[in-house]
Amino acid sequence: MATSTTLPLSTNKTLSSSFTSSSLIAKPSQLFLHGRRSQSFKVSCNANNSGEHDKNLDAVDRRNILLGLGGLYGAANVAPLAIASPIPPPDLKSCSKAHINETEEVSYSCCPPKPEDMDSVPYYKFPSMTKLRIRPPAHAADEEYIAKYQLATSRMRELDKDPFDPLGFKQQANIHCAYCNGAYKVGGKELQVHFSWLFFPFHRWYLYFYERILGSLIGDPTFGLPYWNWDHPKGMRLPPMFDREGSSLYDEKRNQSHRNGTIIDLGHFGDEVQTTQLQMMTNNLTLMYRQMITNAPCPLLFFGAPYPLGTDPSPGMGTIENIPHTPVHIWTGDNPRQPNGENMGNFYSAGLDPVFYCHHANVDRMWSEWKAIGGKRRDLSNKDWLNSEFFFYDENRNPYKVKVRDCLDTKKMGYDYAPMPTPWRNFKPIRKTTTGKVNTASLPPASKVFPLAKLDRAISFSINRPASSRTQQEKNEQEEMLTFNKIQYDDRQYVRFDVFLNVDKTVNADELDKAEFAGSYTSLPHVHGDNTTHVTSVTFQLAITELLEDIGLEDEDTIAATLIPKKGGEGISIESAEIKLVDC
Question: pTM score, two decimals?
Answer without folding.
Answer: 0.83
